[in-house]
Write a structure and sequence with these properties.
2-enoyl-CoA Hydratase, Chain A, domain 1, about 10% strand, 3-stranded parallel β-sheet, alpha/beta, LarA_C, about 120 residues, single chain, globular, LarA-like_C, Lactate racemase C-terminal domain-containing protein, 5 helices
């Protein structure tokens, strides 16, 4: 998920972020994985955080909720997660299908920025 947050400064409000990743170890820490299997919206995430409390294992959920509140669509392209289990972010099993989904939403004239090693950068506008 860190790669998603690094891309945020470069995405217009309402834009789409596509993260290409293997996710060999799942989508995050165990508690994070449990939560993303239960929530379907930004408001659900925020309500759950208010009700159950905030912990470092779920800090990325708060950041995710803020992106979703800005109408940003987040697509994770990975062969190792199932869209049947996780609704937020959107899981698509191939990079080509994920890019097609993003272009369908943004239009064929959309601007595309590739950020290799996005977890290793400090983004500046």
């Amino acid at each position: 998920m860190k790669g998603v947050f690094s891309a945020k400064p470069f995405v217009k409000e309402g834009g789409t972020i596509v993260l290409l990743t293997k996710c060999h170890d799942g989508i995050g820490p165990e508690l994070f994985q449990q939560w993303v299997k239960k929530v379907t919206s930004a408001s659900e995430i925020k309500n759950k955080l208010k009700k159950e409390g905030y912990s470092p294992e779920v800090d990325h959920l708060y950041l995710l909720a803020n992106l979703l509140d800005e109408n940003c669509e987040i697509i994770i392209a990975t062969p190792n997660l199932s869209s049947d289990e996780i609704k937020i972010p959107k899981i698509i099993n191939s990079s080509e299908a994920a890019l097609n989904q993003a272009l369908k939403r943004e239009g064929r004239d959309a601007k595309i920025l590739a950020i290799p090693y996005s977890t290793r950068i400090i983004p500046e506008k």
